[in-house]
Structure formats: structure tokens, C-alpha cells
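[User] At your convenience, examine this fold.
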Amino acid sequence: MKKIVCLTAALLGSGLSARASELNIYPSFAEVRETVQLNGEQFDWTPPADLGSYLQPESLELDDPNVLFMSLLPPTPSLLEMFEGKEVQVWFNEEYVTATVVSANVGMFKIGNSYVQIASSQVLYPNLEGWRIAATYSWQRAPVVRTAQLQYRTRGVQWLQTRYTLGLNQDENTSAQANLTAWADIKNESLVRYTAVKATLFAGFSASANDSSVSKPKIVATAPVTTRPKIISAGEVAGLQKFEYPNKFTLAGRTTMSLPFVKSQPQVKRVLEYSNQFYANANLQTGLLRMYRFKAEQILPQGEVTLRENGQLIGAVYLENTALGSNVKLNFGKDFDTKLVRSAQLLERITSRTQIVTKYKINFLVKNIKTRAVNIRLNEWLCETWKFSAAPNQGFVFSNNSFVLERELAAGQTLAATLIATKTVSVPMKPVNPGGANPFGC
């Protein structure tokens, strides 16, 4: 009795069971590693039909020192064409009957003494063993029995994003301990179902082409962070940061799996901040930026940070790749009611034969009209050579190319500070008799 196989089932069967794999996941692709058993002089591998165009064929490698050469066997052009003159089963008059393929081009079949046209989707083929329904990669090798790693890259799986939540519960203090948590979203656009026996995420890789036209996958529900292991840092490789997820998981096709990532409690300082280039004669009135500052207690890959205070959504901003111990500054836009008034007054300009000395008085004024304390930070940086001076009780901190003034203001309190900016420019002396010209006239 002949074994009957439906072509549709043969094409889709590769996606029905999960493929046990190691996944190295990057921002725009993943490297898949599968363990294969090598027995004879030839090893053939046909990509899962569900992998489709996501496979990067140039990345395919078999980790076997006994390989002599590799070749690509093209797929069978058309099963119908290959079965011309042979018998198949077709759906006709509400049942499957035996028919002979007359013409694959027009779908013509002979049933008994009649000729009929039937769609290829209504055809059942005999045993397809030996037929290639997709391109097959074939390795010729010395007949050594061993296991090996087969690896390839796919654009179907990628580290889609990292989603952070920064939560604070005490909104009356300018500094408070916060809860920083994050999820890493792993997206599988293909229909291949992977069982990840080991998953490693890599941050800092230069992104390659990413097809954004694929339909948006569904989101898989995730367990609370307290009930599952989280992704942990695994060190650095040639400038890339590695993160490993210790547990096995299944990544189904057309889904996004969210894995628990960061969990730390940094000390966060809320700051109303003004930062600008120094202009000696600038007079302005401007709002202050709502900044949240903390030190990174671990490596933080780039991603969106959602801020919540007492559970209330405050805003969301983008975080760049951040090294361990770096200072994090999150800008949530201008404050509505806290303003800085900056005024500049020219005190003197003295010109002599050798130099010009210019001196300005710069006043800063901020009033806290809120009902709670706020932390004010004023910063200006230089692109010209100025010297600053201020009374010690003003609180200015000067460096070679900037100054910072930071102060906590209680409700209703006013910050008033003054500094003196001095610039000295040398005047080049004119030559007495340049080029032998007459020093007294034309």
C-alpha cells in the first residue's frame, strides 16, 4: 500500500515541533546553534520551511573538522512536474481518487477515460522520501561518527527592545531609593518554534538590515519577575556585552517573549536643572528641566524608561547604552512653574595697547513656589577663555570649562547667586616697518 502525504502538511510540519537550540540574540538578528548527529560520508540539512527568507544562507556553518566540501542542492522545481505521467491522489467528486498527471503547467489530470483540471492544492502525493521540497545543504565528509554544532543566522529572531520601569514612592523628598526593573523583549517574526536550551543576549552590536514590514506579533503573557530567574550579565566579548538567561524556554512563532532582566534599587535624585553654553551678555528667563539622576548599579542596555511616582505614570524617555557605575541623567521635560531668571551686567571694559579686559556681573535667581522642597542645579559651559570668581558662600563649583551651582530649596525659598566673569584678550603689536614700507605714510 502506498504511503500518502499531503504536500501542505509536509511544508508546514517543521514548525509543529520545537527545535532545541542555543540562541545568541542580537538587536536585529539571532544566531541559532543546533546539535546534530553525523554518521556517514554525507550530511544533508534542509532549512525549516517556516524559516523562509529570514535565513541568511551565507552564515550557515557546520562545526566538523572532517568536512571535505559543501554543496547546495536546489529544490525540486515542481512536484507536479516531476510526477507527470505518474499516479497521484486527487480530490474529485467529494472523494480522493487515483489520477495520472498529464500536464503540470495547466493542472490537467486523467481519471479513467476523462481529462479534468484540478488545483494543485487538491493533490495528495505518494511517499515524498527522496524529493527535495526546499533547497538542501549537503556536506561531504570523512565517515567519522560524532556530534557537531550546526549554526546559522536568522533575521526572524531579534532582541526587540529593553523596557525599563523606574518607580519612586516618596514624592516629598529630592532624593529617594527607587525600584528599577526591566524586561527584555525577544521577538520571533518567523513561524519556527524554538526551544532555547541556552539563550545569550548581546548589546552593542552594530545593527544590520531589519525588515519592518512583517506584521506585528502577539505578546506572550509573562510571569511576575519575582517568580522567574532573570537575565544576568555574563561579561564582555570584544566590546559587546553578554547577558544570559539561565532557564530553558520555548519561543513560539509570531510571538514576542518578555524575559525578566534588571532589578536594582538605585538612589535617585530629582533635580530641576538648567544647562546651557555660557554667554556673558545673555539675559533670559527660562523653565528648568525635570531631571532624574542616579548611578548605574549594573550595565544597562539601551531602551525606553517609564517613570512612575506612587504608581502614577510621569513619562517615558530613551536610555542609551550605559556602563556600570556611570551617571544616568533622565530628562522628562520642562517644569511648569519653576523659572530661572538670568541677568548680565557689563561692569567694565578696559582697553590698553597690549590687552582688552572685559568684566561682567552675572545674576541667577530661582524661586521655589512649590509646596515641597526642590533641588536646583545650574550649569554653564564655556567655549572661550573666561575667569570666574564668586563669594565662597555662593556655592559655585568651577572647573576648567564650566561651572555648577547646586542647592536644595525649601518650599517658598529663593536662590539668588552672583558671579563675576572676566575675560582678557591680548592685542597683538603692529610691526614697526612691515615689508620695508614707509612707516610714516603711503
About this structure: Confidence is low (pLDDT under 50) at residues 1-16, 207-227, 437-442. The helical segments are 7-12, 79-82. Residues 270 and 292 are 5 Å apart (CA to CA). The chain has two helices and 33 strands.
